Structure of 2-methylcitrate dehydratase PrpD:
Amino acid sequence: MATLRIAEWSVALSYSDLPSSVVDAAVRSFYNWLGCALGGSNHPTTTTAVKALSPFFGKETSSLLGGQSTGSGAGKADASHSALINGIASHVHDYDDTHLETIIHPTGPVASALLAQAEALTAQGMTVLGDDFLLALVVGIEAECKLGLAVWPKHYDVGWHITSTTGAIGAAVAASKLLSLSAEQTAHAIGIASTQVTGLREMFGSDTKSFHVGRSAQNGLLAAILASQRFTSSTSALEAKRGWVNVVGQGINRLDEFVGSLGKVWEIEKNAFKPFPCGIVVHPVIDGCIQLHKEMEEKELDMQGIKSVKCRVHPLVLELTGKKTPQDGLQAKFSVYHGGAVGLVLGKAGPAQYADEVVRSNEIVSIRDRIDATAGEKLGADETEIVVEFQDGKELKKHVKHAIGSLEVPMTDEQLQEKFLDQVSLVLGDGAKKASDIAWSLKGVGDVATLVKTL
Amino acid sequence: MATLRIAEWSVALSYSDLPSSVVDAAVRSFYNWLGCALGGSNHPTTTTAVKALSPFFGKETSSLLGGQSTGSGAGKADASHSALINGIASHVHDYDDTHLETIIHPTGPVASALLAQAEALTAQGMTVLGDDFLLALVVGIEAECKLGLAVWPKHYDVGWHITSTTGAIGAAVAASKLLSLSAEQTAHAIGIASTQVTGLREMFGSDTKSFHVGRSAQNGLLAAILASQRFTSSTSALEAKRGWVNVVGQGINRLDEFVGSLGKVWEIEKNAFKPFPCGIVVHPVIDGCIQLHKEMEEKELDMQGIKSVKCRVHPLVLELTGKKTPQDGLQAKFSVYHGGAVGLVLGKAGPAQYADEVVRSNEIVSIRDRIDATAGEKLGADETEIVVEFQDGKELKKHVKHAIGSLEVPMTDEQLQEKFLDQVSLVLGDGAKKASDIAWSLKGVGDVATLVKTL
């Protein structure tokens, strides 16, 4: 009954049922997604996909976010391709949100499908309210994360990219909600999405990794559209003997448990945002170094007076990001030393601080070479202890118990905005602030498509 | 190395390398596919998909076969949707071909992608020769069936629809061949296709079952198109630790063995064709009854003189198709009694003999009621012994050792043509014979798209 229970829960839920904390989480998730999608819109993976697929674009109802820079001309596509391309863009920098319990990046598949569909509805003369959009986003993300929990961790361990395998189903639930489908139709949409299991981890490191996210958005949207025309699948798609959980769960099946917690435990509240565009294990050091940068500014301490920076870190940090002398931005993502250096010197570690020329600059390299990191067995994965020694014998210390971006120390709205602007200004230049204001205004807005049009 | 080995084998193979028996099998496979796709073009599953998805159709380069009856207007779509829709149509009557060792229906995914792509190339001013088309069809089907063998039987047992899970990869190899991609690009195309594992058996009995076949064609085509623009995946997609075989093979991995037999054992030669549009277990009885019909005509024996028809059959026949009094065409597919009756009375068991009015006609029901079937433990699954008793004491006997359509008694070209005409005349009327002539002429034809255009 899990398939129908998800469908019935989604159909019954109204905006007024959402706790304000859930609405806030949805707004923040959408905001972060939009920044990532705009920020990834001119990445070669995204532009290659646009180039390859534009001959197939249908009626241009829906945005390719940041389209002016993809070289696609109109910056529009049919809803299906819009979902695909925006989904790719939102994941391509590995900078999107994370449901930490399942490491699902939940908003990419769902929001990419929803925005494309909202604009397509508008092209048909309908209007999608911001609140309805947020409600659909919530049901999609809840369904997606509950399914992830139901098969965690073996589904991921064996090799499935859990973001896209569950994301297509979340996107189907969300798009069904936006289309006001019945519970039975929603169940069929779940079935059509679930039978398209997209995402092998073997693709990590290639263009196809972010393709997974876009394709899951597209598959979910397609599923809802087919179901809206009464195309049938199975209303037991998830729980049946040869259904989704049994085929891809590798023996783990906690479906009833987690479907039973729908509306009781809200997964979107546990969605976290990455403050820095690099591996999450580096984040404590960057966080501490940015705090030290501020302290040095306040105390008017000279950067060149630094003798050494000693970081005690979780052992995984050295294993995953131990690159001493990175030569470009990509290598720098795997260097705790570069992360610490830009944090200390520049007080920031956004996309601009991972540009090749920054990585190779004397200013950064000279401090980077003074940073040392050693493994501290008892430290948490999001913890670090940093000691800065100055040539005159002074010392500064910083203990980061939980890095910024963790559930304990979530990013503030202001920090999310800084992240947004850092990404989007590289694509939209001065238009980034306007885009940010638009993205924050989703809640209560009268027409989502018009809102996006002004981007 | 399996991924690259398949790619390299495909790139190196030329038409002159194909044994004539392989070319013949490819022509017959294409011919049978085209008949099925035309025959399924006006099925509600197909027309619902067209209705739902036509808003997304891009530039109309490629045919929706039988398009005049789908209500789509032009009968065309972009190549991607053409692959999807024709793939659905070709499988929707469960009347397509079967690679018996894996029960893959191999031609649907591959030919649907290829024809769509061939027409798209023509729209760009290129020409696709019939021989090149057949060569691409062969490499696609070989890759698809070798992969099926590599994970048989557990992959199917656990719940994957093996036709579509392997079909997307076969379609990717075939489309890559038609696009003259390099071995490396072909490997990336295999990767992009393999990461989209489409088809849960739970969907059997719904519209989504044939959607699997169409979607696999579309996914394979898309993979080749992305790879042609150097979109990357993994060149170890099939064999890697978290690649296709390990994730979906359920512990079975005979990849090296079967990839090693490429070009040595030709799977397409083992492709079988269904003579009758119903479960394969009924085929021996139908075959025997059609032979008895001819014998009675020759001996001028009156049908109404029949007292009883006693069939000894494999036990599975009664288990799967034991319906005594079917009320419509769908139920009749699960009735060995109906199959025997139309064989005896009409000498045929094509789609027209499964029309509701035939199933309920007095002519058929009166004979059907005289047919008895009992299980014979020692009979093969494709074997039957039939005894017809007449009221005057006469008897006719027929022993079918291997039913028509088995590898031992393959359908002749004439029988394939009769099947084609029976299906296609229900859609194209008098145009069926012309379509048949066109379909037979693929080998050596100068331009595949023009050939199809005349359909």
Notes: Strands of chain A lie at 62-63, 76-77, 98-99, 196-198, 271-272, 306-313, 371-375, 384-390, 395-400.
